[in-house]
Here is the input.
Amino acid sequence: MPQRSASYFHLHLVSDSTGETLTMVARAAAAQYATISPIEHLYPLIRTSRQLERVLADIEESPGIVLYTLLETDIATVLEKKCKELGLPCMSVLGPVLGLFHSYLGTTGSARPRVGAQHMLNAEYFKRIDALNYTMLHDDGQHPDHLEEADVVLVGISRTSKTPTSIYLANRGVKTGNIPLVPGVPLPPQLETLRHPLVVGLYASPERIVAIRQNRLLGLKAHRDDDQYIDRQAVAEEVTFSRKLYAKHNWPTIDVTRRSIEETAAAVMALLADRRRTPAA
Here is the structure.
């Protein structure tokens, strides 16, 4: 394929299910190209030749990279044939992985392809829903009397990404509560006596916290010159207090200064896995 010099490209994502898996893979690859932005065209639930016709018309109108997760061979073949005619790159995201499974396991799996099998209403699915419900009810210090039921409790000062990290963990089936550290506001007494949950302290550099808080105030169109919320020295004291608190209780900590939500959640899950592997004293 000839190399392109444009600052964008069309990315067609064709799926016979929700397209979630396909989108994550495509975005992970596209993220490696900081100077070129993809224009995503997502086509979920493509399961018939008639539905595919619209997709093919769009691809012809806006040529680009085509990725797909189609388990019906006939539909996938039509898509690949059309892309070949147009001279466009086309690839099955699941194909190589399924081929690897087949070569190792010596079987093709189900006699009939199970479209969207990862989204079936099984025990794991309901575990995630239960975790999401719990996490939403225990966000920002709500209902501290029930924190013992959590798998993880995140603690941190304002703007350390407690809520989005909690929701991300809940989507992985981890019941997560979070407690804000607010100057002058005492911690809920339940926090210091928890036995079942893993308590994790989040912190960031004062500069990072100030920058995020200033952006938040701008977004809310709020302006408070005398507010300690964005005072560099006051924020540094908040960070110092939080780290002393974590050390006092021997809570593991994560520096979120340069971490994405996904990276922070992955670090939490690694800590949780280590704890579950280590027998209780």
Q: What stands out?
A: The mean pLDDT is 90. Residues 232-249 form the longest helix (18 residues). The longest strand covers residues 8-15.
